[in-house]
Amino acid sequence: MGDGNLSTKLVLVARTDLGMSKGKLASQCAHAAVDCYQKALQTTPQIVKMWELMGQPKIVVRADEDGDECLLQLHEKAKKVGLTTAVVRDAGRTQIESGTVTVVGIGPGKVKLVDQVTKHLKLL
């Protein structure tokens, strides 16, 4: 399983400029992970199977710029290289204005592809 061609991961890119509590941030990341997983089951079930066999690696990183635009650009870049991706927009019931992009999930996908989109981002 250490073979780079078989390695898979899911990356969650979170905004840190919104002042979300740790619990709120965890909830938003969970939304992105579940959404990506559900989409990937439909579109790339073989990748999901590899990801599951590897222990479902998930990495949380911080957006490199403030605002929705940074996450939306990462979402588009991920789509262009053929990765599953999900944008989480807050419902606005608690801490954040409705419709605000909080997290983007990228993957599960082959590490090589996911890194093309997210390698420059720092761990959260």
UniProtKB/TrEMBL annotation:
Entry-linked Pfam families: PTH2
Catalytic activity entry: an N-acyl-L-alpha-aminoacyl-tRNA + H2O = an N-acyl-L-amino acid + a tRNA + H(+)
GO cellular component annotations of the record: cytosol
Key words of the record: Hydrolase
Domain of life, source organism: Eukaryota
Top EC class for this record: hydrolase
EC nos: 3.1.1.29
GO molecular function annotation: peptidyl-tRNA hydrolase activity
Similarity annotation: Belongs to the PTH2 family.
NCBIfam families cross-referenced by the UniProt entry: arch_pth2 (TIGR00283), PRK04322.1 (NF003314)
Alphabetized PANTHER family for the sequence: PEPTIDYL-TRNA HYDROLASE 2 (PTHR12649), PEPTIDYL-TRNA HYDROLASE 2, MITOCHONDRIAL (PTHR12649:SF11)
Name of the protein described by the UniProt record: peptidyl-tRNA hydrolase
Source organism: Diploptera punctata
